[in-house]
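Example 3.2
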Amino acid sequence: MRRERTERLRTEFPFELPRGYVDGSGTVHRTGVMRLATARDELIPLRDDRVRENSAYLSVVLISRVLTRLGTIEDVHPGIVEDLFASDLAFLQDFYRRINAEGHTRAAVTCPSCQESFAVDLAGGGRLGES
């Protein structure tokens, strides 16, 4: 008897920002969820006037399209991404690249105390397709 293993494609990845988004009331939002990008997610921002005027704005629009949650905020729009600290935006850009291009969320790190190198999973999971 042959057992088939059904694997579900993993499409959402949790993360924790280095600093966190501070909303208007002073609440810090550090955890969130990013989903895999679709072709539409990458094409629609190219028609955005802000992106046409400044190509650097592409990452702001693109990141806002694939963030499904940031802390308690479920409607993550470009204005929120604009207000992120630069280190948090850089983290999200790298995270986007890892889940959409590399197929994993692992990163090589070095312990500052003992200098030992090891890998950590930024999303707490394995390769795409694993649940």
